[in-house]
Amino acid sequence: MPEFHDLFWRSLFFNIFNFSTFLASCLKVDESRLDLKSAKFKREIYVSKKKKIVLDLLIEVSYINSNNKLFFLLEHKSRKDSNFLTQINKYRFAIQTWQIHEFGKLYPVLPILFYQGIDSWNPEESLNKFINPLNTFLPQDNPQILIFNLKIFDLNEMENSINQNLKHKNRELLSGLFILKYIKSPWKDFLYIYRKVQVILSLLEESKRIDLEERIQDYIFKSRTEDYNILEEAIMGKRVLTAYERALEEGKLEGKLEGRLEGRTEKALETARRMRDFGDSLEKISIISGLSEEQLRENGIV
Questions:
Q1: Residue pLDDT, tens place only, 209-232
Q2: If you average pLDDT over every residue of the chain, what do you get?
Q3: Is residue 75 a part of any domain in this protein?
Q4: What is the DSSP string of the chain?
Q5: Per-residue b/e over 103-117, b at no fewer than 16 CB within 10 Å?
Q6: pLDDT digit string (tens) for 287-299?
Q7: Integer Cα distance of 234 and 189 in angstroms
Q8: Domain for residue 233, yes or no?
Q9: Are 153 and 28 within 8 A, CB to CB?
Q10: Which of 65, 76, 69 is CA-nearest to residue 39?
Q11: Are residues 207 and 189 in contact, defined by beta-carbon separation less than 8 angstroms?
């Protein structure tokens, strides 16, 4: 799958405020016992001296007034992936192996599958297909995986909560989730969402707004298939020239180039005339002035 979906998602979640908002507002996780300010974000772990495992995102969080830790494993999927459970279990095992080397003990690992929703996949249904055959023999079996399906998540409700000044007033996360959810929508629908996001962004402080705006625009240009000029006009606010205007602009450019060339030629001829007056050879005049012998003769220099 295209890396740019992962890159934008990761840039959004590699942030403790966004992550804590996601836990509370999107997953309804009670984070009151967690010391989220001390959270450590990782992408790489070493299960041995030479073997490195690269993850989407691993967040190490300590409990308040405790030496215990909890690890959140965030796995991003933009589209359907039937092997997600196998992959998550492989990562969970690798994390536990790393924990033994790093801490000498095991801590709980809570995997979270973040499904962006670009296609029609239902990850909950896929997970149930894995679980149900086991239930006959293992009634208590529970893979302990949280699934967040952005495709069906109500972002308008989250926006209303923010506008009502509730606890997690995070417009940065909201803007990013809107873009992730609708990045492949039909052009008119996406443009409507982008305009909504612009309004949300306008309420952020300037430094945060500019940074996020640049990341969003970069993601849009890499993800959308519309003509570059259309994207420039709609996303960057640059008006696309009509064919007539382009012709005029090209004519102006050609006129400027012609004027520059004429000016350079006139200076070269002036240099050539002075060299002739000092008695320099035709070959030397041609080399220094940059004019051909034909040009020199046509202008009466030799």
A1: 899 999 999 999 999 999 888 888
A2: 84
A3: yes
A4: --HHHHHHHHHHHSSHHHHHHIIIIIS----TTEEEEEEEEEEEEESSSS-EEEEEEEEEEEETTSS-EEEEEEEEESS--TTHHHHHHHHHHHHHHHHHHHHSS---EEEEEEE--SSS--HHHHHHHHHHHHHTT-TT-----EEEETTT--HHHHHHHHHTT-S---HHHHHHHHHHHHTTS-HHHHHHHHHHHHHHHTTS-HHHHHHHHHHHHHHHHHH--S-HHHHHHHHS-PPPPPHHHHHHHHHHHHHHHHHHHHHHHHHHHHHHHHHHHTT--HHHHHHHH---HHHHHHTT--
A5: eeeebebbbbbbbbb
A6: 666 677 778 888 8
A7: 13
A8: no
A9: no
A10: 69
A11: no
Residue 274, domain extent: 243-298
pTM of the predicted model, to two decimals? 0.74
Q: HSE on the CB side for 248, CA within 13 Å?
A: 5
Selection from 215, 221, 198 nearest residue 13 by Cα: 215
Q: Which amino acid is at 232?
A: E
Radius of gyration of the chain measured on its C-alpha atoms: 31
Residues 13, 116 within the same domain: yes
How far is the C-alpha of 117 from the C-alpha of 1, rounded, in Å? Answer: 13
Q: Kindly state whether residues 12 and 117 are assigned to the same domain.
A: yes
Q: What is the sign of the dihedral through the CA atoms of 134, 139, 145 and 146?
A: positive
CB atoms within 10 A of CB 44: 10
CB 289 within 8 A of CB 272: yes
- Phi and psi at 113, nearest 5°, equal -90, 115
Strands 109-115 and 69-77: parallel
CB 141 within 8 A of CB 134: yes
Neighbours of 45 (CB within 10 A): 19
Tokens 């002739």 correspond to: 276
What pLDDT score does 285 carry?
A: 75
**146 and 248 inside one domain:** no
